[in-house]
Amino acid sequence: MTFSTLILMVAGKKISIKDRIIIQNGFHPAAPRNMQSLVKNIFLYALTIELLGCLSLFLRWQKEFSWLQALFHSLFHSVSAFCNAGFSRFSQNLANYRGDVWVNLTIILLIVFGGLGFLVLQELKEGFSGIFRRKKIHISLHAKLVLTMTSCLIVFSFIIFFIIERNNSLEMFSLKEKILASLFQVVTPRTAGYNTMDLNTLGVASVFLLIVLMFIGASPGSTGGGVKTSTVGVIIAFLRSRIAARDSVNIFYRTLPQESVIKAYTIVTLALSLLAFSSFVLFLSQPWARMIEVFFEVFSAFGTVGLSLGITPKLSSLGKIMIILTMYIGRIGPLTFLYAFSREKSFGRYEYVEENVMIG
Q1: Is residue 75 over pLDDT 70?
Q2: What's the whole-model pTM score?
Q3: pLDDT at residue 295 above 90?
Q4: What is the C-alpha to C-alpha distance for residues 97 and 114, in angstroms, rounded to an integer?
Q5: Taking Cα atoms as reference points, which of 283, 280, 334, 277 lies closest to residue 304?
Q6: Which residues have CB under 8 Å from 340's CB, separation 6+?
Q7: Which of 5, 38, 205, 214 is deepest in the core (most CB within 10 A)?
Q8: Range(s) of the domain holding residue 128
C-alpha cells in the first residue's frame, strides 16, 4: 500500500478520500494523520534502519569477504531481516554465525524493529527526542501493548527454550552459543525465518513453542505476519477482565472498545479455521508426513515465516498450492481477506427475537 501510494504521489495522481483513510488506518489506530507525511516517514524509517543494519554487518563481514561481497551480503541480509523475509545468501543460513554476538544482535534488532510497526517506531523516536529535550513523553495504548507483548514474548520464550534445549539440541554448544542460539531462535519465528541451528534436532515441546510464536507473529502496521501481538494482548486483557468479573475490558488504565475485542476474536477464529483447513488438505495430500511437520509447515506459511522441518521440497502440487494460498491470506490478513468477499452493508433493517443457548 505504501509503495503504490508513493508512486501515485510522485506521478501527481489524486487519491480518493476513502483510499486515504484505508491507508492511514493501516498504520495508525487513532485519528488519521496527514497521508503524505505518513508515507514519507515510513520510507524514512525503513531506509534509515536498513542502512544502519547494513553498516553494522559490513563492519563485521568486511573482515571475512572482499569489500564488494561484504557490502552486498550486508545490504541483502539487512533488508531481509528488517522486512522479516528470512532469505539468506549463505547455504547454511546463519548457522556459521551461531556464536557471533555482533551478527546475532544486529539481525535480532533488525527483526524486532521491523516487527514493531511504523507507528511504534515513530513514538519511540519521539520518546527518545523528548528525553533529550526534557519534555513529557506520551505513549499511546497501542505502543504500550505492542512493546509489552513483544518484550514478554522474547523474554519468556527465551527462558523456556533455553531450559528445554540446553541439554538436548544445544548440548554440544558452548554457553555463549546456547544463549545466542536460544535468543535468536525465539525471535526469528515471529515471521523472520532465519535460523542458526538445525530445527530437526529440536524436541516436540520446542517445536510447539515455535509454532505458537509463528501464529502470534509481529505487530500491526509492520513488515511481519501472524495474528499480531496486539490481537493476542487484547484477548488476554478480555480474559483477565472476565476472571475479575468486570464488564469492561481494561488495560494500562484504559478501557478497550467492544469493537476491538470482537475484531481480535474474529481474527483469531478466522486464522485457526484457515490453519485447520490447510492442515487437513496437507494431511490428505501428504499422508507420509508427520503431524508436527504439517502443523509447523502450515503455521510457518500463515505467519510468512519461511521456516520448515524439511518437508517443503517433498510436497505435492496440491500441497504447494495450499501453502501458497495460506501464505497469501496470512500476508494480507484473514480479516482483510474476509472483507474482500463480504457485503459493505447488511441486508435489511430487522432483528429476530433474542433467545439464549448453553455455552461451555
Answers
A1: yes
A2: 0.90
A3: yes
A4: 21
A5: 334
A6: none
A7: 214
A8: 50-256
